[in-house]
């Protein structure tokens, strides 16, 4: 169901959603697995970047496994979104490589990733309202903050499918690439990120989330203090020296 591949040479971990007979629909157990695997890769010092993708070429994930919903108890429902939000909470960059349907829980998982690239045929939707429910794994909050109230309302209330071009224009995804180039482009971005200072990326990922929910004066303070702390790191020194000496930096994460 959930598979992990590790590219030791490039320091990249990959999480694969492989339930092709159900369009990669995510069960409760798969939610837990996704969260666990993401956290495991985050703790692995040999991994610098994580890629999440769906297998089969038809769907990143068509959403939650609706057949389970009536059997779920309230206790599970209260915290079942935490696992799909793991990408946002960890220290390493996470890339969503999207090909095909990305609905409901699948879109919630993708939105928790830092960078999202998709193929032209990809479609995005929160169809929950048409089932008498609402997104509950961070989808409402993230899409409202990302799109603003007007566009989010249109998408959420109508359960509308958004095509890749509209998703790009609205900022739901960052790039559109041809299907045969998706894996290559995801790897290219991952390798670029892996070459950077993991210490600075960790700090940047943290302050981006903090600044997003902060007033201007607080955001200014957060970024200045973070810069000041990084000033005394080995990576900061290496970055400056490599620039002055016109050579590629060799960051060690310290």
Summarize the topology:
Blueprint: E1 2-7, E2 12-17, H1 28-43, E3 49-54, E4 59-61, H2 74-79, H3 86-89, E5 94-98, E6 101-103, H4 105-112, E7 115-118, E8 123-125, H5 139-147, H6 149-158, E9 162-163, H7 164-170, E10 175-176, H8 182-194, H9 198-212, H10 216-230, H11 234-244
Parallel strand pairs: 2-3, 3-5, 4-6, 5-7, 6-8, 7-10
Antiparallel strand pairs: 1-2, 8-9
Structure notes:
The protein is of the alpha/beta class and 254 residues long. The chain has helices at 28-43, 74-79, 86-89, 105-112, 139-147, 149-158, 164-170, 182-194, 198-212, 216-230, 234-244; strands at 2-7, 12-17, 49-54, 59-61, 94-98, 101-103, 115-118, 123-125, 162-163, 175-176. The chain has a 6-stranded mixed beta sheet with strand order 1-2-3-5-7-10, with helices on both faces. The chain starts with a strand and ends in a 10-residue tail after the last helix.
List keywords for this structure.
single chain; 254 residues; alpha/beta; 4-stranded mixed sheet; 11 helices
Short synopsis of the structure:
The protein starts with a strand and ends in a 10-residue tail after the last helix.
